[in-house]
Fold:
Amino acid sequence: MKLASYKTLAAATALGLATLSGLTFAQAWPAKPIRMIVNFPAGGVADVVARAVSPGLGEAIGQQLVIENRPGAGGNIGADAVAKAPADGYTLLMSSGGTISINPSLYAKMPFDPAKDLQPVAAAARVLVFLVIRPDLPPKDVKSFIDYVRANPGKLSYGSPGNGSSPHLAGEMFKSAARLYATHIPYRGAAPALTDLLGNQLDFMFDPGIGLTHVRSGKLRLLAVGSPKRSPLFPEVPTLDEAGLKGFDADSMFGFYAPAGVPQDIVARLNREINRQLQTPAIRDRVAALGGEVAPMTPAEFAERGRRDAERFGAIIRERKIVGD
Structure:
């Protein structure tokens, strides 16, 4: 047999063994617990969704999911840990889509490349933001609130889960569209920002849903929804588009990611099982309690949504010259 034939046979054999090895590995997965990194603090939307989905997902795949909160740098710290983890299916990221669609526009330098180092696994929820204010402020609707902020330029402050977070960008969209000025106060997560709003240390915020119980109790006043459509939880509350800020859309997508290179059959199984969990009444109700909607998608659909969000949020980041901390 000629040398070239030997080389061809050897290459084919190596490829076959590699394919078989990959199939065997994927078929054995998962053989141990899976680490799920949440790149925002406990109590925020990402954390709540992760803890809602993980018990049923763990039962479906036969292994426990161990949740680890690693906040900081707008989600970059936790996402970087996942991006650099082995591509073996044993490390997942639960994050707002902002880490992938916002941070590349926000930070001049990142420790990883979201487009190359992470792969979308499954969308979890479309999360709306709600314009809430202290109930002791005079305004009762969006128009009077805009007039009030304009009459007190720089005197009112609003909080967010961090510089460049989607609630922060919602605030910047609001200021740009309404032509007003208010002071932004960044926090390390939505929960501490909400605590200070309830404590009258802030005047308003774009709440990603964790403060809705306080709206119902009267501790916060809900003026509008920062989404293209009204929330079924508060059908009487207008969107900011309806209130006159045409085209206002600050929705964000939360979901699961894995290190690039995880075998596609593992990704497909995770996507399938997560989508099944999203259809259960308990998960739908938990996400709805946050003012969001479950959003089952294929990995390709999730990736495309991230691309569109990057264009939308990138525009306001450039307009307002926002930079990451």
Summary: The chain is about 45% helix and 20% strand.
